[in-house]
């Protein structure tokens, strides 16, 4: 990859898929994720971010959490894998720094609730991002209102941002989690980058790495949206990485349609 960077006079690879929050391109999806996180934190409710695989939900949620006031909230991130309810709560106790003496599910739920109540009373309520939430066990999804709400449903104690694929939304509906849906204060479905955003995203990333608009022909820029499965961030990053690699190997000073087509043939989602 060093030869590619040298050939195009780039200081680093501009399309790693993620980056420092300060370098993030603020797409419509990202701005909406920030808005959902802010409302969820303020209202101590439940926020819902869903969309197709690869559109940047996890990274947007990470950036959105980072924009919250660290002095006002106790912010925690929990990436969920395929685990049992008991292991989920063990992990949640660890992530939230909850001290639980008991080993059973009910004991852990009670300990987490007590910890959340204390944080709220101290003026720094818990804000929890549950990433890959489509993997959350069904019984845990049904437990979320119990986790969030004070006794007798008086008021919410924490904010939970559920982030996942479209499967998450479908599972919540199929489980008839009416009490959970009633707690959802804000939600957003990711759409991917628009045609204009695809161009702006690529140029933004190139500029940060020392490149210019001249590195891509106009027709190649205009074809980015279609070539990346209609603005799928993961596909776009993969496409651009491969395009610059192919272009450098062929000594092409610009990424044109021929290079872009060649790169698209090698795409792996």
Give the topology.
Elements: H1 2-7, H2 28-43, E1 46-51, H3 57-66, E2 74-79, H4 85-95, H5 105-121, E3 126-131, H6 138-148, E4 159-165, H7 166-174, H8 178-183, E5 184-189, H9 195-208, H10 218-222, H11 224-227, H12 233-249, H13 257-265
Parallel strand pairs: 1-4, 1-5, 2-3, 3-4
Helix pairs in contact: 2-3, 4-5, 12-13
Low-confidence spans: none
What are the secondary-structure elements, in order, as H or E?
Answer: HHEHEHHEHEHHEHHHHH
What profile does the largest beta sheet have?
5 strands, parallel
Number of strands: 5
Average pLDDT number: 92
Q: Provide the gyration radius in Å.
A: 22 Å
The gross shape turns out to be elongated
What class do helices, strands and sheet pairing give? Answer: alpha/beta
Number of helices: 13
N- and C-termini, Cα separation: 20 Å
| Helicity range | 40-55%
What fraction of residues sit in β-strands?
5-15%
* Neighbour order of strands in the largest sheet: 2-3-4-1-5
Keywords for this structure?
269 residues, alpha/beta, five-stranded parallel sheet, elongated
Describe this structure in words.
Helices cover 50% and strands 12% of the residues. By secondary structure, it is of the alpha/beta class. The protein is built from 13 helices and five strands. α2 crosses α3 (57-66), α4 packs parallel to α5 (105-121) and α12 crosses α13.
């Amino acid at each position: 990859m060093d030869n590619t960077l040298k050939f195009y006079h780039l200081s680093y690879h501009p399309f790693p898929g993620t980056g420092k929050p300060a370098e993030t391109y603020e797409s419509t999806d990202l701005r909406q994720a920030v808005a959902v996180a802010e409302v969820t934190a303020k209202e101590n409710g439940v926020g819902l971010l869903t969309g197709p695989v690869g559109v940047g939900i996890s990274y947007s949620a990470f950036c959105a959490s980072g924009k919250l006031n660290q002095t006002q909230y106790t912010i925690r991130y929990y990436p969920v894998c395929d685990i049992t309810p008991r292991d989920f709560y063990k992990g949640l106790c660890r992530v939230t720094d909850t001290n639980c003496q008991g080993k059973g599910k009910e004991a852990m739920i009670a300990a987490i609730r007590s910890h959340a109540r204390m944080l709220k009373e101290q003026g720094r309520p818990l804000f929890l991002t549950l990433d890959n939430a489509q993997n959350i066990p069904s019984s845990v999804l049904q437990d979320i209102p119990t986790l969030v709400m004070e006794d007798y449903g008086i008021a919410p104690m924490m904010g939970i941002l559920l982030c996942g694929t479209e499967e998450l939304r479908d599972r919540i509906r199929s489980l008839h989690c009416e009490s959970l849906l009633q707690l959802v204060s804000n939600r957003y479905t990711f759409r991917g980058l628009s045609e204009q955003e695809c161009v702006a995203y690529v140029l933004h990333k190139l500029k940060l790495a020392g490149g210019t608009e001249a590195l891509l022909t106009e027709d190649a820029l205009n074809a980015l949206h279609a070539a990346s499965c209609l603005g799928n961030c993961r596909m776009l990053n993969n496409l651009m990485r491969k395009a610059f690699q192919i272009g450098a190997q062929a000594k092409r000073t610009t990424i044109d349609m021929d290079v872009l087509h060649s790169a698209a043939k090698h795409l792996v989602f």
